[in-house]
Design brief:
The protein has a 6-stranded mixed β-sheet. Helix content is about 20%, strand content about 45%. The longest helix is centred in the middle third of the chain and has 15 residues. By secondary structure, the protein is α+β, with helices and mostly antiparallel strands. The protein is built from 2 helices and 8 strands.
Length: about 140
């Protein structure tokens, strides 16, 4: 998924070469680190084959220092400033941050307008004769 890849790239650009996971880690979590996961997707059909999709993202920050609150506050402040757009392409909406269980949980939505691709038959066959065909 392009948006997930772009989010991960942007995290690494903004926060340096930090560890970013895109799946739950059962053992061996290295801190500081981020975990990036899409948690919900919605789709709304529009006219002329257009589709408006909204993806809800959950980004968890695992701090390294003993000053968990201060570190999480700094990370969230940076996130609010640097993640108004993803790759200058997708708008970020409803950005929220919550500190719980000594981690920072950031949630936000990204919307994208897509165009459905349809294949059209340019020639039709009636009674064994191609319509539109010239000899």
């Amino acid at each position: 998924m392009e948006i997930k890849t772009l989010i991960i790239q942007q995290i690494k650009e903004v926060f340096g070469n930090i560890k970013v996971y895109d799946e739950k880690v059962k053992q061996g979590l290295q801190t500081p680190a981020f975990l990036v996961r899409m948690i919900q997707s919605e789709q709304e059909r529009k006219i002329k084959g257009q589709v408006w999709r909204t993806y809800s993202w959950n980004v968890v920050y695992f701090p390294q220092s003993m000053e968990v609150d201060a570190e999480c506050d700094d990370v969230f402040e940076t996130f609010q400033t640097e993640f108004q757009y993803i790759a200058n392409k997708y708008h970020v909406h409803r950005l929220e941050g919550v500190k719980q269980d000594d981690v920072l949980v950031i949630t936000f939505d990204v919307s994208a307008r897509l165009q459905e691709v349809t294949t059209e038959t340019k020639m039709q066959m009636l009674g064994g004769v191609w319509i539109g065909q010239t000899n």
